[in-house]
Amino acid sequence: MTAATPPTLFPRVPETPDAVLDGLDPEQREVALALHGPVCVLAGAGTGKTRAITHRIAYGVRAGILAPASVLAVTFTNRAAGEMRGRLRQLGAGGVQARTFHSAALRQLQYFWPKAVGGELPRLLERKVQLVADAAARCRIRLDRNELRDVTSEIEWAKVTQTVPADYPAAVAKSVREAPRDPAEISQVYAMYEQLKRDRDVIDFEDVLLLTVAILQDRHDIADQIRRQYQHFVVDEYQDVSPLQQRLLDLWLGDRDTLCVVGDASQTIYSFTGATPDHLLNFRVRHPEATVVKLVRDYRSTPQVVHLANGLLGQARGRAAEHRLELVSQRDPGPEPRYAEYGDEPAEAEGTARRIRDLIAAGVPAGEIAVLYRINAQSEVYEQALADAGVPYQLRGAERFFDREEVRKAGVALRGAARAGGNDALLDDVDDLPAQVRAVLSSTGWTERPPTGSGAVRDRWESLAALVRLAEDFARARPGATLSDLVAELDERAAAQHAPTVQGVTLASLHAAKGLEWDAVFLVGLAEGMMPITYAKTDEQVEEERRLLYVGVTRARVHLTLSWALSRSPGGRASRRPTRFLTGLRPGSGTRGTAGAGGGGGIERGAAGGRPERRGRRGPARCRVCGTTLTDAGEMKLMRCEDCPSDMDEGLYERLRDWRAGQAGRLGQPAYCVFTDKTLMAIAERVPESGGELVGIPGVGVRKLDRFGADVLAICAGEDRGRSDDET
């Protein structure tokens, strides 16, 4: 089995090609051996996909089937590409190219530009914001810094979806994408931006892909030369491929099918950048003869974490949900996920900090703990709570709260107003401190109502809103405090956050956490309006929010805490409710519906198939003996309090345990993956006589009823079913 622990720094290179396959599980081994024809690896979170594809490449190279220089492996981040190259070297397969799409395309563009176009390749524009600003000025459209960032992102989206400036308004309307400005204005800025690039002889990162595509389409001799060089392709995170990247991949391939793709539609969370899972989901349509291998053995997370992750996707809707993978944990059992409800956001942050401090005291390293939130503006209250608790932390994927430009500008404005005192016209007729702060921040863009849409404008507003809330809390804690007192408090808070960051608790947005994992994860702010975010309007946007939460859940190895606050500020109206995504999953949260079930692990050769699965609806669990509402997961399976009397048939329970041991051995899985002890106890207590009675027992469900129901009912009826030859 694949180890759950990270590899050593200097592992021994396998001595033989067959030794490369040592330690792979059956499905990973199938990936490694599938070296011919199109291959699609559907890999769930924590199932060892990088291990599988690097061993595939290494085995092919070491066995003499693949020439190292003929393989091109592409992924989406430099970190992932570097990790892949490192693993390949450790397996004795140095010389294989592992790059990002942009890096591979840029290398080819630099080499072939003199031959295809002539002269030197235009200078690569590292940051396009200034050029977008110049384009907006030429169009006499005024954009502040945050709007510039949003419009720049829109231009990037248009280019990776191969949308020209004139078609941008129609493309936005068709995609139900909420533009940060009038689409006609963005179209105008986009067109001028392209003109300025030509005038200044520069190209941007999207042009790297576009120009490579153009050369390969127009110059067949160059395309043939690249195809002679690269004959085998591996694409990681295939669910994140954009239409432009797919076009480039098609040109690299030509009429060949020597392609292996790896992905998970349930982890598609970057559609706002142009990524789409359609290429992954349609792979069998384009390649009917493809080998499909499903990796579902989760080596990262405990059964408790995996159970919640599966339940979360069990409620999903849409095409991606139809292809979801049901994970099976390979780790020992751990603690149940914790659910915490707080009166307000500061209390949630303080409670989270206390729990983190307890985990550190219990031996969990601070660097193995993460706090994940939906948007970066949520970080400030957690930064402060951790600083107050003396816990070091580091921010990932965002500036520190007090380093953000809008926060710095707000600080300057507040400082100026504090120095001016009663001479600042903004403070005329404004008495209390929070009102003074709101008045001052209104000059920097603060509004009572949040802006619609997402992106930098919304993040900026959230940052200023956090300052307003901080002022309200400060005034409540220190009646009579002045604006000067608040400014001094802000300075102290900013200074306190320069804690060591190397071994600190990670603070990150859910998007920034993709591809990472920790021993303990805190998913915070899980209230409606933040998860799903308010501007997720369409069904598909809401489903992407669900997938984002799924990514968050599957970052945890052992400890997982999910929390929300009923109000934003202390003393506020408790009008919030926890995210709809946890309904039916957290104790006492009522019923839930489910979508079609995803498949288990294994290999498919031929047309993919599957049938939808329905699960019974579940209401609040009550003890069948005393009627008390149950919240403990084990008690909910038994449908009684642990202390209430049991009428379990001991003999039946032992026969069920013997049968389960045989099943587990045949499947090569831990016994609890068949049924847990608590589920077997519940079966032995109720002695079901029909499938309807059996499926009503928590922990069974339709899937396990289909798989094991006949055996269990036969054992309950007194028959001997020690082993089963049923199809799995």
What does it look like?
The strands form 4 sheets. Strands 3-2-6-7-1-8-17 form a 7-stranded mixed beta sheet, sandwiched between helices. The chain has a 6-stranded parallel beta sheet with strand order 11-16-15-12-14-13, sandwiched between helices. Strands 4-5 form a two-stranded parallel sheet. The N terminus and C terminus are likely disordered. The longest helix has 22 residues. The chain is an alpha/beta fold. Helix content is 45%, strand content 11%. It contains 28 helices and 17 strands.
Topology:
Blueprint: H1 17-20, H2 26-33, E1 39-43, H3 49-62, E2 71-75, H4 78-90, E3 97-100, H5 101-116, E4 123-124, H6 129-138, H7 145-160, H8 168-175, H9 183-200, E5 202-203, H10 205-218, H11 220-229, E6 232-235, H12 243-253, E7 259-263, H13 278-281, H14 283-286, E8 291-295, E9 297-298, H15 303-314, H16 319-322, E10 328-329, E11 338-344, H17 345-361, E12 369-373, H18 379-388, E13 393-396, H19 405-420, H20 433-442, H21 456-477, H22 483-496, E14 505-509, E15 518-523, H23 539-553, E16 556-567, E17 602-605, H24 633-638, H25 650-667, H26 677-686, H27 691-695, H28 701-716
Parallel strand pairs: 1-7, 1-8, 2-3, 2-6, 4-5, 6-7, 9-10, 11-16, 12-14, 12-15, 13-14, 15-16
Antiparallel strand pairs: 8-17
Features:
flat, 6-stranded parallel sheet, alpha/beta, 7-stranded mixed sheet, 28 helices, 17 strands, 11% strand, 728 residues, disordered C terminus
Question: Quick one: overall form?
Answer: flat
Question: How many helical elements?
Answer: 28
Distance between the termini: 20 Å
User: Would you tell me the structural class of the helices and strands?
Assistant: alpha/beta
Radius of gyration: 28 Å
